Write the structure tokens for this entry.
Amino acid sequence: MIKRSTLFSVLITGYSILNRRKNFVHNFSHSKRVFYNNICILGLRAIPFLRVLLLTSIWHDVGQSDFKQQAKYHHIYSARLFKFFTKENKYTDIVVNIILCHRNRGANAQYCPKTLLQQAFFDADKLDVLNIPRSKKLIKMYSRGFSCGEFNIKDTICFWEDFITNGENILFLEKSKKLFRQRKNAFVKFVSEIKGKYNV
């Protein structure tokens, strides 16, 4: 079991790395929302795994940089960084495997989510696409001249529209699909407003 002092230290280290990377999409707020989404998806089943979910939520995007196009491999970078900073505890392999499986459902069979925790975390991460405050911040950064990898406003809106259409189908768990349906309409309205405002 991870001692409280060790857990706190590893959480703070992950938080510090996120801050140093100056991510404006994959940041601490995103980590908090992913943790919250996991609790919503798993319900009481989350209770035995709260430490695992805390660690994975903080660390799953530490290998991501919003200013470079390295999204394709950030799950591997993040898992390596987490393993480097945690040497001995019994949760390390569980967290590493969830991090490795969080990015893309079918990109690599080796990293396809299989366990309940892996599938719930994948879904929780994807559901944060429907986070309107986060999306508003992203559009605001674009309007100031920042870019997210090679993405711009037009690319991002295309991504959002594709997720609106196909997002429910890529989620694993029924609770996740229900949450998607509950959040979808407000996000559709938001995307429509952004398209009108920026004439996209």
In short: The domain at 4-198 is CATH 1.10.3210.50 (Hypothetical protein af1432).
